[in-house]
Write a structure and sequence with these properties.
The structure is a single chain. This protein is of the alpha+beta class. The chain has one domain: Thiol Ester Dehydrase, Chain A, CATH 3.10.129.10. Helix content is 20%, strand content 35%. Strands 1-2-4-5-6-3 form a 6-stranded antiparallel sheet, covered by helices on one side. The longest helix has 17 residues. The mean pLDDT is 87.
Length: 147
């Protein structure tokens, strides 16, 4: 794993690994790198991630865009997760069961109240599977992760 601060690792554990119910879908994602408004992770497409065609479900892809871009936002001061205002995903190709995918999120702009993030989901050959855009409302009154 690339250099990742202890605080970012703790936020990753809190947001991705300890989730119950719906959030548990991300428990096997592995953090590759994070910091300065970025977050990159990888995971293998498993049975509970796929649709009837045995490819990565569109809803799961949207969940990855939401969760990993939120982690990228948490990696910037003031370390707030924000609340989704808009999320869109362009689906470019399927990822079959067993495929290792990479999710790479970046904060494009963090403003006073709105943050704009982008996410690329690629397969093991680096081909783009999906691309997401995520807008989040951030309030300074919002609690910091882990408080």
């Amino acid at each position: 794993m690339a250099q990742v601060s202890k605080n970012i690792r703790q936020a990753w554990e809190f947001l991705m690994k300890r989730g119950k119910g719906f959030d548990s879908l991300l428990k096997n994602a592995e953090l590759i790198s994070a910091g300065e408004g970025t977050c990159k992770c990888k995971m293998v497409v498993e049975e509970h991630h796929v649709n009837k065609m045995k490819t990565l479900h569109g809803g799961m892809t949207a969940t990855l865009v939401d969760s990993v871009s939120t982690m990228a936002l948490v990696c910037t001061e003031p370390y707030l997760p924000g609340v989704s205002v808009d999320l869109s995903v362009s689906y470019l190709r399927g990822a079959p069961l067993g495929e290792e995918i990479t999710i790479d999120a970046k904060a494009l702009k963090i403003g006073k109240n709105l943050s704009f993030l982008t996410v690329d989901v690629t397969d093991s050959k680096g081909k783009l599977i999906a691309q997401g855009k995520h807008t989040k409302f951030v309030s300074k009154d919002q609690p910091v992760i882990g408080e």
